[in-house]
Amino acid sequence: MFAKRDKKYKSKYNMAGTKGWLENLKYNIERYMYLLHRITGVGLVLYLILHIFVTSSRMYGVEAYESAHGVIFNPIFDIGLFLVMAGVIFHGVNGLRLILNEFGLLLGKPTKPVYPYRKVLKTQKPRTLLISMIIIGLILLLIVAYELLLVWVW
Amino acid sequence: MSGKNAEKTIVMKIKRWDPDKGEFFISTFEIPVYKGMTVLEAFTYIKENLDHSLAYRGSCRMATCGTCGVIVNGKPVLACATQILHLNTDTIVVEPLKNLPLVRDLIVDHTVFFEKQKKIKPYLIRRNEEEYWDPVREYIQTPEEHEEYMQFTYCLTCALCYSACPTSGTNMNYLGPQALTNAYRFIADSRDEGTLERLEVVDSPDGCWGCHLAGSCSEVCPKGVDPALAIQLLRKKLAEEVFGYLEYKEGAKLVHTLQVAEKKTTRTYPEFTVKGAKKDVL
Q: Phi/psi at B174 (nearest 5 deg)?
């Protein structure tokens, strides 16, 4: 009797799916980092395919390789390259932060749950790590921008 | 509602699950709100006055039982611990929790969630079977040892963290923040001897390696359990095990017989103050 009833009443897994990446964003900065880390990860894989496509033109001789480079040699592709480098820098720098934090380093010990509750990611050490990583990333990004501009200025 | 002055009227949109048709539909209600009114009380108001068919779940009304979890304005919260006036909006959107099977309206099925908790063996494991099944005395534990896992024992199993977790949203087999926190709670317990058994369960992409430190679980937890910290500490334990640093602790010993005996002999009873009371009554 109950089996019949169960079949009648449909049940649905209310999975958030990849749309769930965009939820609960505004409460902590780590969630934005998570989203960007995923997006840059996918973006870098797509870039890798393009990169292999361009460099593989060397198989068909020097001329083919140079003509492929001639197509790439324009400001639009440089903007793309800048975005790729921004992705690489973010993914690398944030990855370092994740490696440190995900092995329980710089997180401290559990405390008594006394109100207002402490959230360990919002304490001093992980926050300092995050901010210093953002600063390092911005410096690297400025260097990349400078290098890319040099090609077109001179 | 009588005797309480309504401060303002708010619009509550409830995203409800229809099990017969297998789809969501949205009901809109206008609710007079008084100072201190919670979302759960608003549900009760709707059920009593506006729509008797609304299905929701709630029990203790004081954030202790963990049954009334819903998503209010995009954030998983306990309905009983969320005051409507504190939300500072005129329109409130309520949805059932995510990543769990829906039953009806705002009710979700926690069975999957509890099955995952069972996987990590949420009980003390002792090597001495005889002593485990027939305990005569309590185990010794210092307050410092207790503090190592105390924070993680406050979990209500309300599944808010499970609903907020982005990994749970894409991986159905992922154990979830709650189960992993519970695993660490027992591994850090000085009385427990089942560290390796539990590490075996959580050492997989569906276990603690599925966490990507988004931190939402700690953000939504109504009891300050901080699952994000527990999962990272669990990984630390696993890394220690791989590199051979893990201290294989021996479970805490039982309280010594002599200590118990001494306590009994030194205990004093108050004098009899009632006239005619017999001493052999005790």
A: -60, 130
Does the distance separating the beta carbons of A109 and B148 come in below 8 Å? yes
Domain that holds residue B209: 111-242
Distance from C-alpha of A135 to C-alpha of B162, rounded to nearest angstrom:
33
pLDDT tens digit sequence for B46-62: 999 999 999 999 999 99
My answer on whether B137 and B226 are in the same domain is yes
pLDDT, mean of residues A67-86: 86
- Region at A115 (left for phi over 0; alpha for psi -120 to 50; beta for the rest): beta
Mark whether B147 and B47 lie in a shared domain. no
Decide if B55 is inside a domain.
Answer: yes
* Mutual angle of helices B176-187 and B227-242, in 10-degree steps: 60
Hey, are the CB atoms on A13 and B170 less than 8 Å from each other?
A: no
Q: Report pLDDT for B267.
A: 55
Q: What are the chain B neighbours of A103 within 8 Å (beta carbons)?
A: 232, 235-236, 239
- Tell me how far the alpha carbon of residue B88 is from its chain's centroid: 27
Q: Which of B52, B81, B108 is the last residue of a domain?
A: B108
Residues of A with CB under 8 A from a CB of B: 8-21, 23-24, 27-28, 30-31, 33-34, 37, 98, 101-105, 107, 109-113, 115, 117-121
- Residue A41 binned pLDDT confidence (cut-offs 50, 70, 90): very high
Number of domains in chain A: 1
A8 within a domain of the structure (yes/no):
no
Q: Tell me the pLDDT of chain B averaged across its residues.
A: 88
The mean per-residue pLDDT over the stretch B67-84 comes to: 95
Task: Indicate if B59 and B177 belong to the same structural domain.
Answer: no
Which residues of chain B are within 8 Å of residue A96 when distances are taken between CB atoms?
none
Residue B247 lies in a domain: no
Residue A19: inside a domain: no
Distance from CA of B236 to the nearest CA of A (A): 5
Residue A118 falls inside a structural domain:
yes
Percent of chain A with pLDDT over 90: 51
Q: Determine, for residues A12 and B101 on separate chains, whether the beta-carbon distance falls below 8 Å.
A: yes
Contact assignment for A11 to B102 by CB distance below 8 Å: yes
